[in-house]
Amino acid sequence: MKFYIIFFGLFCNSCIVLAQSVKIIGSVQDTSKNLKFNQASVVLVKSKDSIIYADTRTVNGIFTFQNVVKGQYHLIISYPKYVDFFLSLNLEKDSLMDLGTINLMDEAILLNSVVVKGKKLGIKIRGDTTEYDPAAYNLRPNATVEDLLKQLQGMQVDRNGNITAQGKQVRRVLVDGEEFFGNDPTLVTKNLRADMIDKVQVFDKKSDQSAFTGINDGKESKTINLKLKKENKIGNFGRVELAAGNFGFYQGQGFYNHFHNDKKIAAYLFSNNTGIVGLSRRDRQQYSDGGVEATYNTFDIDSWNGSYGGKGIPNSTGLGGQFSNKFNEGKLSMNINYSYNHLNVSGNDFIERQENLPALYLLSNSVRKFDNNQQRNNLNSDLKIILDTSSSLAIKINAGQISRKTFNDFRSEARDSSENIVNSNSRLFKTSADKYAGATDLLYLKKLDRERRTISIGLNIFHTTSTSSGTLISNIETETPTDLNQLKYNKDYTSIINLKSVYTEPLSKSATISATLIWIHNSGALNRETFDQEQNSGNKLLNNSLSNNYHLEQVFERGGLNYYFSTKKIRLQAGTDFAHINFNQKNVSMNSFLKREFYNFYPSAEFAYNFSAMETLSMKYNGYPTLPSIEQLQPIINNNDPLNLIIGNINLDPSFSNNVSLNYIAFKQANNIFISGNVNLSQIKNPISAVVTTDLEGLSIYEYNNLSTVSNLRYSASFSFGAPLKISDISFTVDGSMEGNRLNNIVNSRLSKNQLNMYKLTLGFGKAKKNFYNCGVSFGVIYNSNKNSLQPLLRNESWGYQTRPNLDFYLPFKMSLHTEVDYLFQGKTTSFTSDFSRVLWNTYLQKDFFKNNELSIKVSLNDALNQNRGFERYITQNLVIQNTYDTIKRYFMLSCIWNFKKFNSAK
Question: Is residue 225 part of a domain?
């Protein structure tokens, strides 16, 4: 009897469900050709929450959804090179809904003869790639790519042009998948026109070898790829701007581009002192896309890295060119980039520093006058050869040269917590340096006799050398005064050979295993000489305590296995490498040798789950050792700052980092909602840190050492949410972020625990009306907290606020008005007892001429209220530092801009 009751209940329930469900049928074909589409994507989305209810593909043009629960839905049909079809469905009455034949329209026909009213969906998520459609955003005439990026959800562009996408800084900007104008993203984003872009793609670019094998090697960089419209791939375009202002401000730049399908020729020239172009923070040329992180040596006497980030007044001149083409029916591809840049930065800055000690703390003030110069040449070339249908060879040859001169004049004074002066220092420091670097990368890729059975061999050869010299004149006033007049000379080189081979073998339709073998030879030398000069005679005498010639050789023998599993919904990778490292150190000055060896693991894992075509969750883990550098090992005193001496340690061991990241991204098509979030955590075990000894006169000695009993932590999280408000077609965004560090070091034999946290929440609103206005405003709140275990009562906590309204107003007679305001407030702390606030107001009025707005005259006002002041606060171990500095302030400027383009897509 019980069985019949259960059966009857299930039967009734089934009848109710069937009575409340609907069957949907329909067919899909081409509008003009009446061709039935096979494998067209058909997606049924809930209207209420934009969650995908069901998806299917057409078979000979026909699609069917069975037993669809009654309610409100959106039907979305897409097929390559055709316009997406969108239909709202109300499934409340009938049990069968026959949609009949649905016609899709060819994109080419749409562009030529049809005007469609309505808001275009601006985002698509394709696996690991987020794709934006520029046509969905309201942009002013002749807007640049940077103007477009500022409107994209999940993306921020700061005042210096640096781009952050989905919580990570963008390292590369490609055009049609290739480097364009070398490695400076701002040269592309500030000068390429937005109306030429078909798609903006954002993804984590892997190394070429990793992209081929599908096995993650942990070397990823956030990248933007700009896909050009087909009609813009044959013709010429460019931009010329000449501008002059008061107080000697000027700006001139010219960009010319010739495209003919795969053939691209580009050239640029600029000169300015407004901080607009050619001043990317990415000064250090990246020389290898393979298995080594190869950059210019950083062992100069002066630590200035040759970039401009708003500190001082810049003068910059640069030129460059790019050529790329494909030959022999695409079997041979070539890409060559050359760039030259001269940068001068001069100004003054003021540094306030709090140094936490176990029994007290020291406060110091330092005023610096600086004048720094750099000239840089870089040549990058890529050659890709398709040998046959299953193999290819890629060759990269890169070379660069830097000449650098620096001038720094310091005046400083330090007091203890009782306001007693403990020291004062005047220091003049002048240096010059010449650097050379070159690299050759070879990558052979081969597909074997079975799908996903491959072998790849990569060879990376890198060499850099540097010579630098300097003069240090210092006078320290303490109870035991010290005067220095020294000449300094550095010579160094680094040479790296990296050979890597990867073999992949399919285990099943979805599973693959890979075997990796790596051999690396890394050698380097650092020769430092310091001479004491006699003031009267001018004779110089070698200072043995500050001079040393040190050599380092590292040989890696590394191998491992990785398992990779991939389906439509799931991607999984796990494995590890094991490495044996020979560590040979030679102190040439002391004629002593130290040989050591280390064993390390390189574990990695990755998991990704696709909830739908537009919603993905991924998690990554990788672990790796970080070996001490030759600068940290060399047993010598570095007295470039005589109040802060640095000493190397020949017995340093590697540290080990565990890195975990969690990423989520989703786009709800029906409601145009974009969501992204990420969490990152890094644990550094056995970290290489500074053991600090500071005496009562404020003289500090920093000696590198491993902290075996504690770990350092770095953590961050961010999220972005964007959606249109139902009222008045206003776009709404919420962006939040958190960054933190837990750093440890030893100060006067005590463990110093430093914890730094920064929280930021920003609300944004935007509204646009085509050909009338485009406006937006953001409100941000910032909270900073710093705690130090040596001085627990000095809790440096502060609140900050930032507001950024902006407006583009399109006036009659082809005139436009742009204005933007950036208000920043940073509250006082226990250490720094003054608030900081500034209002930056920039505006311009522009008049366009001719039919296509080719010529523009612009009158602009920078920093209208003349309040721009350089400001930053940061923490490093037991130091809390506040820096204020000169920067570009108010000026007027008159500009003449010519945007030209001529395309012939008929060819």
Answer: no
Flag whether 128 is in a domain. no
Lowest mean pLDDT among 169-178, 628-637, 889-898: 169-178
- Last-in-domain residue among 60, 79, 113: 113
Q: CA 543, CA 563: separation in Å to the nearest integer?
A: 56
- The answer to whether the pTM exceeds 0.90 is no
pLDDT tens, 238-297? 889 999 999 999 999 998 988 888 888 989 999 999 987 554 444 334 444 544 455 666
Contact 178, 230 (CB under 8 A): no
> In the 8-state DSSP scheme, what is residue 633?
H
Q: What is the pairing mode between strands 870-876 and 879-885?
A: antiparallel
Same domain, 104 and 252: no
- Encode pLDDT of 181-224 as tens digits: 656 677 777 777 788 888 888 887 777 777 777 666 656 778 88
CATH number of domain containing 63: 2.60.40.10
117 pLDDT above the threshold of 80: no
Check which CATH number belongs to the domain holding 602 and give it: 2.40.170
Q: Hey, which of 46-55, 136-145, 298-307, 393-402 has the most confident mean pLDDT? A: 393-402
CA atoms within a 13 Å half-sphere pointing along the CA-CB vector of 128: 19
DSSP secondary structure letter of residue 134: G
Whether 661 maps to a domain, the answer reads yes
CA-based end-to-end distance of the chain: 81
What b-and-e string marks burial along 804-830, b requiring 16 or more CB atoms within 10 Å of the CB? bbbebebeeeeebebbebbbbbbbebe
CA dihedral 194→196→198→202, nearest 10 degrees, is: -50
Tell which phi-psi region holds residue 181, choosing left (phi > 0), alpha (psi between -120 and 50) or beta: left
Number of Cα atoms under 13 Å in the Cβ half of residue 744:
18
C-beta of residue 88 within 8 angstroms of C-beta of residue 74: yes
Average pLDDT over residues 146-150: 81
**Residue 344: domain span:** 241-366+375-387+396-414+432-903
Whether residues 245 and 98 fall in one domain: no
The pair phi, psi for residue 397, each rounded to 5°, is -125, 120
Taking a C-beta distance cutoff of 8 angstroms, is the pair 620, 673 a contact? no
How many distinct structural domains can be found in the chain?
2
- Do residues 547 and 532 lie in contact, with contact meaning Cβ atoms separated by under 8 Å? no
Percent of the chain topping pLDDT 90:
47
Last residue of a domain, one of 113, 130, 152: 113
pLDDT at 298: 67
Specify whether the backbone of 416 is left (phi greater than 0), alpha (psi in -120 to 50) or beta: beta
pLDDT, position 905:
52
- Alpha carbon of 201 to those of 108, 149, 205, 228, 792: distances in Å? 22, 11, 11, 11, 47
Taking the C-alpha atoms of residue 602 and residue 217, their distance in angstroms, rounded to an integer, is: 10
Q: Would you say residue 1 has pLDDT above 60?
A: no
Residue 186 placed within a domain: no
List beta partners, residue 129: 126
The strands making up 168-169's β-sheet, listed across from edge to edge, are 155-157, 163-165, 168-169
User: Could you tell me which of 822, 860, 864 has the C-alpha nearest to residue 839?
Assistant: 822
Report the alpha-carbon distance of residue 772 to residue 338 in Å, rounded. Answer: 42
Nearest to 468 by CA among 533, 564, 404: 404
**Residue 4 burial class via C-beta count within 10 angstroms: exposed 0-12, middle 13-18, buried 19 and up:** exposed
3-state secondary structure 216-255: CCCCEEEEEEEEECHHHCEEEEEEEEEEEEHHHCEEEEEE
- The answer on pLDDT for 160 being more than 70 is no
CB atoms within 10 A of CB 6: 10
**How many residues belong to the chain?**
907
